[in-house]
Structure formats: C-alpha cells, structure tokens
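Open question from group meeting: does this chain pack into something compact, or does most of it stay loose? Before anyone orders reagents, we agreed to write out a predicted structure and look at it together. Recording both the input and the output here so the notebook holds the full record.
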Amino acid sequence: MLSRFARVVAALTLLMLAACVENAASGSSAASDFIVVGDFVAPQGVVRLDSSFGFSLYRGEAGTPTEQRAFSIGRAVGFLVTDTIVDRLRTLGYDAVSTSNPNPAGSGYRALIVSGTFRTIDEGQRRRVGNEHSAVIADIAIKAELPGGYVQPVQSFTVDSRNAPRVQADNGATKRESGVDADATNVGAEIARVVGEVARRNNWLPAKR
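Structure tokens returned:
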C-alpha cells in the first residue's frame, strides 16, 4: 500500500514540475488542458445476464442470443459511464471529451487520459425494480500526456457501484434510473470526482469561456 502511494505521489510531483516548466517557458498557456476519456473495455465474460428475462430490454428483440445481449449491455453501460464522466468534468469547467483515438492529444498539449476496464456488469434481477442487486465494477487508469508525447502513469483505482455515492438529480432527489443504468451513472460520477481532484491538484487549466 505504501509503495503504491509513493508511486502516485511521485507521479503527481512530476506532473506539477512539468507544468511549472511549461508555464515558465511559454509565459502563459495558450489553451486549456484536455481531459480525454477513452472507451471502456468490457472483456468477454464480465457481463452477468438476468436469466429471468428471455429478451433484451436494450434491443427489444425476443430471443436475442446471449452473446449479443451481453455485448449490447456492455456497450450501453460503457456509454453511460463515459458520458457521465465527460458531463461531470465539463460541469467542473474542464475541457473534457470522449474518444476512441488511442493518441488523442498529440504532442502540443497536456492531457489527462482516463481509461477503464469493467470487472463486472451484473444485471441482477430486473423484475425487482429498485432492488435489483445489480452491480458495475471497473478498474480505472489515469495517465498524463505531456508536451512532446511523453506519457506518465498518474493513478489507478477501482470503483464499485455498490459502494459509490448515489447520483443526485438537480432538485436534490435521487435519480430515477435503476439497475445497471443507475450503477453506470454512479460509477461515472465517482470516476469524474477522482479525475477532477487529480486535475485540481496538478493545476490543470479549465476550458476558456
């Protein structure tokens, strides 16, 4: 645990030093720093389907093959997670985008790059609305791409929807999504919170308004 903490601190220190060097050399930054959210990977076998339904709620097609249902649910959950991360980071003022490009920022800008792999996407029991016992668990990696194309690992962590804070609606009430939809939203919000903290500690420049 201490070794992992030391690596994270060292990485953050390197980023802050790089930012200072960059700002001193240029006098001021010409553009905001990016935060890029890549596609989340759902390896084969991580999706646990609710066998009580014989059709896919995402496709609305009776008799959809199990593999196709699992793939569709994995894609839907991945989209909800990345969309929530980007939306939350933009609300915090950062220039956040989602992309499939493995080298999104190029060599001219600083960018935090967020990627993830799902450990579990469990539908639970969808007939028990509000008490599905569903779950989404994801391993997250944050890296920093510095000018010149150098990539530095910053932080890695795991988010489990069963332990993540529940997302609140604008009026303060808990959002009405349930099952893996709610799990994906909660996971995305927690990832955005951590990424936002990393960006703040490293003086990541917000988007210009």
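Observations to bring back to the group:
The first strand starts at residue 34 and ends at 41.
The CA atoms of residues 130 and 178 lie 6 Å apart.
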